[in-house]
Amino acid sequence: MVYGNLNGVVPTGRIAGMPLQPTISGIVAVEYLWSENLSFTAQFDYYSTPFHGVGTRTLDKGVTESAMGFSYRLTQHLLWQGYGIENLDFIAGSAADFTLSTMLTYRFES
């Protein structure tokens, strides 16, 4: 399965005296269904910055990340997910360098 998402935000106002500019974010992901209960996902993300011409690379540049993870259905209502996200930008402080996370989701009957 292939997923895609493109978003845009048009903010108003200023933060710390700096004007905000329109931003975009885009995500492309591929999910492989290994079995009925297990899938693996690879994802690429890009987020532009709402700041332009500030003079620091941390605020002037967007963020590019890649993520890999899994989803495992433990029961009919309980899903366990784990993933890691790597910042692909070589700008110190632009985003967390590496994130490792896990979560459990319970789905109620509808």
Write a structural description.
With 110 residues, the chain is mainly β. It has one domain. The chain is 4% helix and 57% strand. It has one helix at 57-60, and strands spanning 2-9, 14-15, 18-19, 23-33, 38-47, 63-73, 78-87, 98-106. It has a six-stranded antiparallel sheet with strand order 1-4-5-6-7-8, with no helix packed on it.
Tell me the number of helical segments per DSSP (H or I, 4 or more residues long). 1
Which residue ranges are poorly predicted, with pLDDT under 50 across at least 5 consecutive positions? none
Q: How many structural domains are formed by the residues?
A: 1
Query: What is the gyration radius calculated from CA atoms?
Result: 18 Å
Distance between the termini: 25 Å
Structural class: mainly beta
Secondary-structure element string: EEEEEHEEE
What percent of residues adopt helix (DSSP H or I)? under 10%
The gross shape turns out to be elongated
Biggest pleated-sheet summary: 6 strands, antiparallel
The total strand number stands at: 8
Strand percentage lies at over 45%
Mean pLDDT: 90
Strand order of the largest sheet: 1-4-5-6-7-8
